[in-house]
Design brief:
alpha/beta; 4-stranded parallel beta sheet; 7 helices
């Protein structure tokens, strides 16, 4: 895109940047909440990082939907892009592009959901497995199998909030509330504040951790609860 075609927009410090595909129901729900309360928001599915050469964060900016946004303009980032989104149509040295994005999202002083580790940029399945193993190790002494469990359950973790997914998940969410300090420590260590925890039939421990869950199958009520919790996390810098 020609530089002349890129319009810099001056925004107030409450701007949220949502990086997600158009079909992402959760991203749209967060955007609606932001719009309803008057928070400036920019959503795009193919962001580009520019001015990445200097080692100072102040010189970095992002182009979304033809608009240039400085790092200093952003008060919160919701990153929900699919695997290897950064490689589409890119012919340069991909390590440099990964490094630029990873550094930008890690160094932004505002809330970022999620602040993925470097492994996510290279192997998202392997990264999810690492998260699951780490969480299982932390919960080893706190989880016991539920005697009356009849099937798998899923619980969404958004900061301190635990939101049960569809089906028989409320019981598992209630049991996890006693482990919130452990979960919060895990979040601080990994940078993953929003994830879907899926438990097996015995519900003794999570069998999978998804740091970028697809919420399209959830009801409008659950999606709304998730969006409220995510928006609250993103706006912590203004509280």
């Amino acid at each position: 895109m020609p530089v002349a075609a890129v319009k810099h927009i001056a925004v107030f410090p409450a701007m949220l940047l949502i990086m997600a595909k158009q079909e992402d129901s959760l991203a749209h729900a967060v955007r609606r909440i932001a719009s309803r309360v008057g928070t400036a928001v920019l959503m795009c599915g193919d962001p580009e990082i520019v001015d990445a050469g200097p080692q100072s964060l102040a010189f970095k900016s992002v182009i979304c939907a033809g608009r240039r946004v400085r790092a200093s303009d952003i008060a919160g980032v919701l990153c929900r892009l699919p695997a290897c989104w950064w490689s589409a149509g890119y012919s340069g040295v991909y390590q440099e592009r990964i490094g630029a994005w990873y550094t930008l999202l890690c160094e932004l002083p505002c809330p970022v959901v999620n602040r993925f580790g470097l492994s996510w940029w290279l192997d998202q399945e392997g990264y999810a497995l690492q998260l699951s193993l780490y969480l299982n190790a932390a919960l080893t002494n706190t989880r016991q199998a539920a005697a009356h469990a009849s099937g798998p359950a899923a619980v969404y973790m958004v900061g301190p909030a635990l939101i049960p997914g569809s089906g028989e998940s409320r019981f598992m969410a209630d049991r996890l509330r006693g482990d919130v300090p452990v979960l919060r420590h895990w979040q601080n260590e990994t940078g993953v504040v929003f994830a879907k925890l899926t438990f097996g039939a015995d519900r003794a421990k999570p069998v999978a951790v998804d740091p970028c869950p697809d919420c399209s199958a959830e009801s409008a009520e659950i999606t709304g609860q998730l969006a409220d919790a995510v928006y609250s996390m993103l706006m912590r810098s203004l509280s």
